[in-house]
Amino acid sequence: MVDLFGGHPDTTHLSDSDVQFLDTTLRDGEQAPGVSLTPSEKADVARELDAVGVDVVEAGSACTGPGERETISRVADLDLDATVTSFARGVEHDVDLALDCGVDGVNLVVPASDRHVEGKVGSTRADVVETTVHLTEYAKEHGLWVEVLGEDGSRADLDFLERLMDAALDAGADRICYCDTVGHATPDRTLDAVSRLAALGPTSTHTHDDLGLAVTNALVSVAAGADLVHATVNGIGERAGNVALEEVAVALDRGYDVETVDLDGLYDLAATVASATGVPLAPNKAVVGENAFTHESGIHTDGTLKDDAMYEPYPPEAVGRERRLVLGKHAGRAGVRAALDEHGVDVTDDELAAVVDQIKTIADRGRRVTDADLLAIADEVQGRERDRPVELLDLTAASGGATPTASVRLSVRGEERVASGVGSGPVDAAVTATREALDLDATLESYHVDAVTGGTDALVTVEVEVTRGDRSVTMGASDADITRASVEAMLDAFNRLLSTGGQVATAET
Prior knowledge:
Layout lengths: L19 E4 L15 H14 L3 E6 L4 H11 L6 E6 L3 H9 L4 E7 L2 H7 L4 H17 L3 E7 L6 H13 L4 E6 L6 H12 L4 E5 L6 H11 L3 E4 L13 H12 L9 H12 L16 E2 L2 H9 L17 E2 L7 H10 L6 H16 L6 H12 L7 E9 L6 E8 L2 E8 L3 H13 L4 E10 L7 E9 L2 E9 L2 H17 L11
Parallel strand pairs: 1-2, 1-8, 2-3, 3-4, 4-5, 5-6, 6-7, 7-8, 9-10
Antiparallel strand pairs: 11-12, 12-13, 14-15, 15-16
């Protein structure tokens, strides 16, 4: 057991292998509203879970349908080091379907609370125990690893939950699981329930975040004797989600010296799941959020420059991240000078003051100040001409036909390039043509028409945010022609990004 409470329970026999993970991103995580993973996406996520050392991967629920069974079979055929399982309801047919998928085991779910025993399945406590014993024996006879989960266990009568799980273990189950199915439990309830189950045999814990207690209850479960934590990457799942794998893994490692998975692969894993599910990472998300290791405040930046650990609980490199010192309205001289030093830009004290003033002015308008913005400001303050590797030579756009088209002629470091594109309108077509000409791996994050002046020669100001790798820049351009303003803004953004170390693909590539 892991001691989270300063003395109890005993930790003398704790080792790195005492706590493992069962990841249910591909089953419980996919049950989040709007999430549907393709077979190839599930396979990719499963491979990454295996690569970071997750011990059990729940690949799905075989009873869902033929498509899901095909997907589970695909994961089962990946030859992972992890045990691959299927969710199975308390019926023999579900076990058969799981067997057909070639999985290593089943997560057999049976009702535990009276609300589920009587209200959901219309059964009795005695019948549930009898069915659980039969299904466990049936699955074991067919060579499956078996985990029995008492659904809604956090609201169950604990005497009955203990009786049910003890019967499962006697029938041959490899382990039992405490389930806080609706995220209802408090830590003291979790401690009581898991302690009683862990005294029976190998116990897992499955916590949800409806009360914001998923991580707390998972850690309390481990303290009470659970040695396997059910989790999802990024905490996705039904309602408020499941406990986040990365948060529990880091909490156990940093707080209690318990190693579970390879932490340095967590960020890439999180990014893969966010991309596949379409559920973006919240900026303030622990461990993997954009702001987790980002500092803007002048006081915090100054402290971090003096001592990396001044305002961080652990180094970002531990979880595959990098520290970022961003510039905004709270930026101080020390942080700005450090950012300029990182790019090899030397400034006098007066120049530094001018740069800081411009950064604050831009930030006060609600704009992000990126590295590219910083370099452009420094160039302006020091009177340097910015390198413009890409220039617009000519632009034509037509929208009179059924399909709007556009063509651009660019100069890329002296090399002339021509490309055309189609789109939903002339602006979309022109942007498509520009990207085609540059063959640059950049993403247009946002597009905004900022202002329009009056009159027949009205000027339109277009603002775009473009990202390339981990760098982004926001640029604006004005013109009487909205299409030209859009392309000029895009090119200014590309030039800023390229001036911070990027390259445009050559004609041969």
